[in-house]
């Protein structure tokens, strides 16, 4: 093993200190030999009954423990704050950085040599990786896996259908009774959202970065092979500790580029951008917003998955999983990267097979030649904005229209369905103050619902712009992450109803057709309308959170404090 185990700074001590470190642990029925030089593996668990997507994680942790013990390690499971996407208000994104701090400090403060990160629901993945990266111990991710595909009236359904149901209810095509039946049909098994939403995007990010064993991304939560993967990951983390294979060995610049390429090919969520930027910031890799456009431009969309396509994560697994997707991308991917199992990414995918070309197309004959995200620039978003072309309408990719501006989410909710709202299908809906500081927490409201009167006319999409995010399950011609956000007082803060805006996705521009003089005048008269919090975590967050183009991390959390063992507590 070479280097002395970090955990021996606790359990290897003699005298009073060693007594204290071991004696209280022994109240759990742990024999003395467990403390004598075995790699101590922390299992960082985001289990919570308030995070339904992760509610099966105690069982998953048991499988990890079997593997750790089998390999000669000593497993210890510990909880961290769990971020349940569907229940937490105002938005889990507000707490992602808090969770990452919990993870970082929990790992560093405890006698751990390696960590298994149990991740599932959207923010539970980036927060755990960000926290662990700031300690940089050997770490492996086990994702919880997607739910089985929902079944409703003979059709497959998933989270993306929620937006369709919402429009159908508002246009009168669906009744509340229908909705209640659909509600019971969608989430019919353990696991996270079954489409290529943020959780699945994050699971694919993990596998493409090399932070998990191959196959981790797509095995359904209810499939017995998910437990097998957890057990094998338990075995592997003990070996990683012995090899001193750390997160920084895996998370190189090329690993990040690979992840961007894979995310493009699967039609991953726009949230990927924010989370990958934040992870890169923690591990010390320079990554910029333009990189997401640059590395995904030539990549075809090969996975036919909702919301960009037709199928579900369960289907992806049966078709060959993410390794079969990555095999199609061989020409695009960097090969000098190592993954958690000690092999290169290429070694992991080269024997993969595709069993269904309707789900995983070839790179030569892709499901869509267009993929990834486009990074827009212009006077409406000086630091950039994001659009996902595969989720947008072709006829709106180049569009000029008049803005209908909502100053904040309440203004939007109060006016969007008013019969006298001056809006038509050529209008551009603009929603302000849903950014990191303004909301606060940058919620997923960017794919705002269309005005009821236009839905009734059969309008299905309009250009929408905000400083917020969109659910990975959402779709439409939706421009997100406008930076700087309205709460910062840039041009986005002073756009008015009636202003003309043009979107040109092929040329990557978003332009507000208002003169520089007029904009300067408006900025001079601008006053913030968002609430400023004066205590607790939210105060800390509002004062230190960075803008979307930097990853929305807290400015003082960039980088790593390492795994240094601090002084004894007694
Ligand atoms: Fe948890 Fe979608 S709500 S992954």
Task: Please give a quick description of this structure.
36% of the residues lie in helices and 12% in strands. The protein is an alpha/beta fold and 570 residues long. The chain has three domains: 38-148 and 189-349, 3-Layer(aba) Sandwich (Rossmann fold), CATH 3.40.50; 155-188, no CATH class; 374-534 and 541-548, 3-Layer(bba) Sandwich (Glucose Oxidase, domain 1).
Main sheet strand line-up: 7-8-12-11-10-9-13-14
Structural class: alpha/beta
Classified by CATH, the class of the largest domain is: Alpha Beta
Describe the biggest sheet? Answer: 8 strands, mixed
CATH topology category name of the largest domain: Rossmann fold
Q: Mean pLDDT, nearest integer?
A: 96
Q: Strand portion, in percent?
A: 5-15%
- The CATH architecture of the largest domain can be named as 3-Layer(aba) Sandwich
Helix percentage range? 25-40%
Count of distinct structural domains? 3
Q: Catalogue the unreliable spans.
A: none
Distance between the termini: 29 Å
Principal-axes shape call: globular
Kindly describe this structure.
This protein is an alpha/beta fold. The chain has 21 helices and 14 strands. The chain folds into three domains: 38-148 and 189-349, 3-Layer(aba) Sandwich (Rossmann fold), CATH 3.40.50.2300; 155-188, no CATH class; 374-534 and 541-548, Glucose Oxidase, domain 1 (3-Layer(bba) Sandwich), CATH 3.50.30. The strands form three sheets. The protein has an eight-stranded mixed beta sheet. Helix 5 runs parallel beside helix 12 and helix 11 (253-266) packs across helix 13. Bound molecules: FE2/S2 (inorganic) cluster. Residues 53, 85-86, 121-122, 159, 192-193, 197, 199 line the site of FE2/S2 (inorganic) cluster.
């Amino acid at each position: 093993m070479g280097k002395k185990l970090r955990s021996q700074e606790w359990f290897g001590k003699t005298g009073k200190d060693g007594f204290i470190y071991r004696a209280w642990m022994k109240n759990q029925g742990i024999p003395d030999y467990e403390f004598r030089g075995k790699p101590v593996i922390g299992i960082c668990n985001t289990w919570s009954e308030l995070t339904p997507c992760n509610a099966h994680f105690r069982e998953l942790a048991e499988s990890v423990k079997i593997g750790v013990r089998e390999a000669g390690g000593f497993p210890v499971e510990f909880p961290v704050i769990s971020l349940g996407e569907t229940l937490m208000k105002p938005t889990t994104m507000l707490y992602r950085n808090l969770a990452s701090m919990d993870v970082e400090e929990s790992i560093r403060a405890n006698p751990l040599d390696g960590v298994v990160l149990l991740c599932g629901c959207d923010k539970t993945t980036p927060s755990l990786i960000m926290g662990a990266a700031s300690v940089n111990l050997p770490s492996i991710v086990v994702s919880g896996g997607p739910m089985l595909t929902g079944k409703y009236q003979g059709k497959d359904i998933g989270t993306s259908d929620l937006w369709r149901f919402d429009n159908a209810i508002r246009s009168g095509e669906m009744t509340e009774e229908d909705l209640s039946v659909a509600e019971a049909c969608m989430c019919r098994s353990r696991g996270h959202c079954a489409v290529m939403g943020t959780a699945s995007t994050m699971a694919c990010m993990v596998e493409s970065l090399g932070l998990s064993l191959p196959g981790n991304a797509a095995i359904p939560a209810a499939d017995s092979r998910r437990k097998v993967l957890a057990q094998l990951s338990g075995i592997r983390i003990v070996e990683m500790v012995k090899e001193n294979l750390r997160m920084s060995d895996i998370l190189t610049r090329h690993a990040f580029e690979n992840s961007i390429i894979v995310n493009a090919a699967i039609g991953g969520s726009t949230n990927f951008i924010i989370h990958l930027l934040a992870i890169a910031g923690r591990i010390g890799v320079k990554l910029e917003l333009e990189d997401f456009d640059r590395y995904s431009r030539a990549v075809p969309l090969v996975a036919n998955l909702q919301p960009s396509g037709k199928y579900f994560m369960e289907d992806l697994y049966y078709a060959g999983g993410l390794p079969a997707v990555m095999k199609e991308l061989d020409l695009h991917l960097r090969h000098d990267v190592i993954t958690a199992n000690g092999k290169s990414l290429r070694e992991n995918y080269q024997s993969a097979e595709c069993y269904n070309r309707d789900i995983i197309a070839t790179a030569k004959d892709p499901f869509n030649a267009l993929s990834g995200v486009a990074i827009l620039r212009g006077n409406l978003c000086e630091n950039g904005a994001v659009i996902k072309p595969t989720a947008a309408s072709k006829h709106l990719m180049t569009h000029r229209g008049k803005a209908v501006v909502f100053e904040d989410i309440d203004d939007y909710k109060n006016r969007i369905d008013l019969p006298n709202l001056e809006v038509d299908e050529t209008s551009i809906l603009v929603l302000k103050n849903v950014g990191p500081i303004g909301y606060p927490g940058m919620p997923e409201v960017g794919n705002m619902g269309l005005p009821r009167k236009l839905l009734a006319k059969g309008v299905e999409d309009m250009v929408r712009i905000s400083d917020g995010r969109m659910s990975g399950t959402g779709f439409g011609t939706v421009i997100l992450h406008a930076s700087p956000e309205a709460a910062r007082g840039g041009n986005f803060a002073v756009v008015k109803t009636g202003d003309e805006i043009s979107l040109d996705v092929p040329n990557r521009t978003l332009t507000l057709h208002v003169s520089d003089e007029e904009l300067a005048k408006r900025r001079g008269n601008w006053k913030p309308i968002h609430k400023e919090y004066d205590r607790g975590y939210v105060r800390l967050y509002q004062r230190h959170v960075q803008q979307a183009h930097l990853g929305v991390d807290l400015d003082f959390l960039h980088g790593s404090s390492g795994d240094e063992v601090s002084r004894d507590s007694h």
